[in-house]
Amino acid sequence: MLVAGVLDTLLAGVHRIVAPNPSVMTGPGTNTYLLGNKRITVLDPGPAIPVHIEAIEAGVAQLGGVIERIVTTHTHPDHSPGAAALQARFKVPVIGAEIADDGHQDTSFAPTHGLSHDDCFDVDGGVLRAIHTPGHVGNHFCFFHEPSGTMFTGDHIMQGSTVVIIPPAGDMADYIASLRLLLNYPLKFLAPGHGTLIETPVEEVEGLIAHRQSREDKVWAALKDVQRGDLDALVRVAYQDVDEAIHPIAKLSLWAHLLKLEKESSAKQDNGQWELIS
């Protein structure tokens, strides 16, 4: 069971603190990871909730370490706002990729350094490698901790739930390609931004790819069945296996699937009405 504010050691040099922000979108809360034991990298500082910032500081003190840097997987408001508070307190670099605000971003995020694919950081003598994984959002990065074989997945992969893709910053084709990219690494564990450590990483990634393909097939079938319809009409068919209370959120991923089909010249839209291209 995940308990907010408690320092949990998951693997050698890998520690987790859960933020007190549970919700439908965040599950049990956002995971902040402390990497290393003496020279600590804070990965996803989470929301700027004072008790969470205090828990991070207490966790670092419990380890007997010092914060060396702060890195972020992306700039959604449940992942990056805590960076400013920690940076002000400890005067350490904040590293992450920026993106134009689409109404869903942390507008307070002001990194001291940008982030590029394959950037590497020394974490207590081990390598932490940045992996650009657009899809959930264009500035999303996963981080591969080479000593433990752990991929920190942010919102690219969540334990126990699929990820919502919100266009235009989110892109379904990019998301699926980024899932496939993870299979190029010698994965032993997935450490998600929400939920518990995943110990069957390859099966999890392959299962998510299959799930997205299955959902795309259902979107295709819905277009064929409805023939011409808007998101409200299509979500009732393509997501009939999902609780109707979740349909407002499901419509966002449905939109992302439709845009993917449009880019592939398989579907088209006119004034919000979607149909297959025969």
UniProtKB/TrEMBL annotation:
E.C. code: 3.1.2.6
Enzyme class: hydrolase
The Metallo-beta-lactamase domain, residue ranges: 29-194
Keyword tags: Hydrolase
Residue spans crossing the bilayer: none
Gene Ontology molecular function, alphabetical: hydroxyacylglutathione hydrolase activity
Coiled-coil region(s): none
Name this polypeptide is given: Hydroxyacylglutathione hydrolase GloC
Species this protein is from: Zhongshania aliphaticivorans
Organism classification: Bacteria, Pseudomonadati, Pseudomonadota, Gammaproteobacteria, Cellvibrionales
